[in-house]
Amino acid sequence: MKRENIFKGLGVAVATPFTADGAVDYPALHSIIDYQIEQGVDFLCVLGTTAETPCLDATEKNEITRRMAEWVKKRVPILLGCGGNNTADVVRFLQTGDLTGADGVLIVCPYYNKPSQEGLYQHFCHVAAASPLPVVLYNVPGRTGVNLDAATTLRIARDCPNVVAIKEASGKIGQIEDILKDAPEGFDVLSGDDAITLELISAGAAGVISVIGNAYPAEFGEMVHSALAGDFNTALRWHRRFNELYKLMSADGNPAGVKALLSVLGKAENRLRLPLVPVRHETMERIRHFVSDF
Questions:
Q1: CA 179 to CA 150: how far, in whole Å?
Q2: Where are the beta strands (DSSP E) in the chain?
Q3: Is the distance from CB of 43 to CB of 79 less than 8 angstroms?
Q4: Tens digits of per-residue pLDDT, 136-182?
Q5: DSSP code string of 210-255
Q6: Which residues are known to be catalytic?
């Protein structure tokens, strides 16, 4: 089986807007999706970390997935987040759940129960065997409590031909470079951190799953596409323009930062579900200043 990854370039980790009464704001979500596609994103990542997925119930997740397929109409690929820390549940969902409209699945490292590297390997092998769609691994140890080592990533990539990429958000540059150096043909690395995307692309990464792309898809996309084309002068200019925003997006956590940014831009309400709360007043004012200057 020849491995082929369609998730390259600028992917956006789509945020979930909420109404004043806490419901999913489907009109705002539709508007955000259309805007991102019109502005040239290469793919959309749905129901990931930025979507506040832990605070969405099963009915909402199914409805978001259904509507996304209806809205996107295959204009760009959809990468659907559907990982978990119970291997059997993830396998069951991949075998019986409605994946209509999805072109691949994003599977996060099991969180909280902190498996060993062998446990991680076995988890992803079972998931890959059950998945009817290409699989993208998601390594984000700051949230899961466990790091997927380079050696384990490469072992999975070699043994599971439908595992096509990894979203790397460990911040471990040496580890990521080890993956890039020894990755089998067709297996790609995607940045999971906007701030180091340029550096990772310069080392051989195939793109990013971006938070900032929710708000600035054309501009951040120009940075990504310029870097992928080898025009690092243009990419560096954009990278420096976003330098302050990188810090602001994480100052009070994600997705609080991007929700504040989207509200300043008039694209969504600044509302999150507990236990997440909006950014501090100080952070909001700095975001307002960034948008004004930008």
A1: 6
A2: 9-13, 43-46, 78-81, 104-108, 135-139, 163-168, 188-191, 207-210
A3: yes
A4: 999 999 999 999 999 999 999 999 999 999 999 999 999 999 999 99
A5: ESGGGT-HHHHHHHHHHHHTT-HHHHHHHHHHTHHHHHHHHHT-TT
A6: 138, 167
4 SS3 class: coil
What number of H helices and E strands is found in the chain? 13, 8
Question: Encoding tokens for residue 139?
Answer: 């390594």
The SS3 of residue 46 is: strand
Number of C-beta neighbours around residue 9 at 10 A: 18
- Report how far residue 204's alpha carbon sits from residue 168's, in angstroms, rounded to the nearest whole number: 13
Which of 286, 235, 241, 236 has its CA nearest to residue 264? 286
Q: Which one-letter amino acid corresponds to residue 241?
A: R
Distance CA(246)–CA(227), nearest Å, equals 18
Tokens representing 283 are 């952070």
- Amino acid sitting at position 92: R
Strands (E), 38-187: 43-46, 78-81, 104-108, 135-139, 163-168
φ, ψ of residue 24 to 5 degrees: the values are -65, 130
Angular region, 78: left φ>0, alpha ψ -120 to 50, beta rest: beta
Q: What does the alpha-carbon distance between residue 125 and residue 135 come to, in Å, rounded to a whole number?
A: 10
**Bridge-based pairing state of the strands 163-168 and 188-191:** parallel
pLDDT at position 1 over 80: no
Statement: the pTM of the whole predicted model exceeds 0.85 = yes
Residue 118 CB neighbour total at 10 angstroms:
10
The CA-atom distances, in angstroms, between 36 and each of 9, 57, 193 are 13, 25, 19
CB 270 within 8 A of CB 215: no
